[in-house]
Write a structure and sequence with these properties.
With 405 residues, this protein is α+β, with helices and mostly antiparallel strands. It has helices at 15-24, 56-64, 68-71, 110-122, 172-176, 233-241, 244-255, 303-323, 331-360, 364-379, 381-391, 400-403, and strands at residues 4-11, 31-34, 51-55, 76-78, 80-85, 91-95, 105-109, 127-130, 133-139, 144-149, 155-165, 181-197, 204-210, 213-221, 224-232, 262-263, 269-278, 282-283, 286-288, 294-295. Strands 5, 6, 12, 13, 14, 15, 16, 17 and 20 form a 9-stranded mixed beta sheet that branches. Strands 1, 2, 8, 9, 10, 11, 18 and 19 form an 8-stranded mixed beta sheet that branches. A hairpin with a 2-residue loop joins strand 13 and strand 14 (213-221). Helix 8 (303-323) packs antiparallel against helix 9 and helix 10 crosses helix 11. It starts with a strand and ends with a helix. Bound molecules: flavin-adenine dinucleotide (FAD). Flavin-adenine dinucleotide binds at residues 11-17, 34-37, 50, 52-53, 135, 166-168, 172, 190, 192, 228, 271, 290-291, 298, 301-305, 307.
């Protein structure tokens, strides 16, 4: 029997694999996504998933890809960000209006984002979505792969022109290409939950560095915030062990009463945190994307946003090649993708890692420097704009998908 043929084969149907498929679908390509896990439960409580902060740039990408209308009713804008350190003088207030933007970003529960993207993929004729399925033998030279659907003995064979590994931090595809990884274990975890606030948050996100961890309160619904606490394992264990009353009292003490009284804590979820980068993101007709390519600490909410910018550039290059009737899977195009993306990736990864290092350091010098650093950001408009633009992925060469051509 003849193998089925696809233009693009995406391994991994997480946020990145699904977004890429939807970005490429209008280019009239035959796309297949292979996902290891079965579909998530339909009625899963979205409060029991992390909140994803999409930057304004990511919102523009989703708008350009016509994904935004399906998300808008679940999204909550962030119009300002207030950064401070508990008991210290340094602080910085970044307002969207000062940057002449409608908002700094939008918050969407991850479960809703994943469901919405899955539904859109299901409605797109030229995307086949196979799940739960296991990838078997991959012949990178012949651009062929075998897949086994869970519960079936039949092995399906495909040929592809371009293979995308969006299969997460332990990527099978990346490992079988023997791509070297560089990992940094922060020996930290993130605790994620939701709570009610008695006063209007006015769409302001608060990030507060404290001796008990870095706390971020993010406006996710009227009088409701997503909370993410990151810190050393022992600090996160302490937060985990508190009963609801003690948890809220500690939080209230660290965050103050700007948002009124806290109540209604939901289930707490914990994620271990590491940073990972890879030596090659393009090899043997394969592009490595998402967590498989770069794993970031969530302190600056950059992981998925960075991947969306990767997707925007890749889509733009493939569209250009298709428009000129050129081979979109040829090595030169893949290398061009690599060249165009390394700068933004390196600066985003560096910025995130520096924030983690600087705000977790107990060195006297760094403790003082960060106070002056925050004040510098607050009082030097140029620095504030530079920082905000870096955090929103608005520096350097910007994909046409972002600036709307
Ligand atoms: C606490 C926390 C908060 C975060 N907050 C933010 C935020 O506010 N903003 C932001 O931009 N980012 C944030 N991130 C990062 C964001 O969650 C990730 O960047 C994003 O989820 C990466 O998606 P992915 O699709 O690359 O990987 P994954 O979500 O890991 O998806 C990979 C998929 O591949 C599948 N898979 C694995 N192996 C195989 C295989 N062999 N065959 C087939 N399928 C396979 C998996 O089942 C999975 O569905 C946060 C991360 C954490 C931990």
């Amino acid at each position: 029997m003849q193998d089925s043929q696809y233009d693009i084969c995406i391994i991994g149907g997480g946020l990145v694999g699904l977004s890429l498929a939807l970005a490429l679908a209008p280019l009239d390509l035959q796309i297949i996504i292979i996902e290891a896990k079965p579909p998530a439960e339909k009625n899963k409580n979205p409060d029991e998933s992390k909140a994803i902060a999409l930057t304004y740039t990511s919102e523009l990408i989703f708008k350009k890809l016509s994904i935004w209308p399906a998300l808008i009713s679940y999204a909550n804008p962030i119009k300002a960000l207030y950064i401070s350190e508990y008991g210290k003088f340094g602080r910085c207030h970044i307002k969207a209006a000062d940057l002449k933007l409608p908002n700094l970003g939008q918050l969407v529960p991850e479960a809703i984002l994943l469901n919405t993207l899955t539904e859109l993929v299901g409605k797109t004729k030229n995307i086949a979505f196979i799940r739960p399925a296991k990838v078997g033998r991959v012949d990178f030279n012949q651009r062929k792969l075998q897949v086994q659907i869970e519960g079936s003995v039949k092995v399906l064979s495909f040929t592809y022109r371009l293979l995308i590994a969006a299969d997460g931090m332990d990527s099978q595809i990346r490992n079988s290409l023997h791509i070297k990884i560089c990992k940094k274990d922060y020996k930290q975890a993130a605790l994620v939950t939701r709570l009610n606030v008695s006063q209007d948050h006015q769409h302001t996100a608060y990030e507060r560095f404290s001796p008990r961890g870095t706390l971020a309160l993010l406006p996710i619904a009227p009088r409701r915030c997503a909370l993410i606490i990151t810190g050393d394992y022992n600090k996160i264990q302490t937060w985990q062990a508190f009963n609801e009353e003690a948890f809220l009292a500690n939080l209230q003490q660290l965050m103050g009463y700007r948002l009124g009284r806290f109540s209604g804590l939901t289930k707490r979820l914990v994620f271990p945190l590491t940073m990972m980068v890879i030596e090659e993101q393009v090899k043997a007709g394969v592009i490595i994307l998402g967590n498989a390519a770069h794993l970031l600490h969530p302190i600056a909410a950059q992981g998925f946003n960075l991947s969306l910018r990767d997707i925007a550039t890749l889509t733009e290059l493939i569209a250009e090649a298709k428009g000129e009737h050129k081979d979109f899977a040829k090595e030169a195009l893949l290398q061009k993708y690599n060249e165009l993306r390394v700068k933004d990736q390196a600066s985003t990864i560096c910025m995130t890692n520096n924030i983690v290092d600087i705000f977790n350091s107990e060195s006297w010098f760094l403790q003082h420097s960060r106070q002056w650093g925050l004040l510098g950001l607050e009082y030097v408009p140029f620095l504030k704009t530079l920082f905000a633009k870096q955090a929103m992925g608005m520096r350097g060469k910007i994909s046409k998908l972002i600036h709307g051509e």
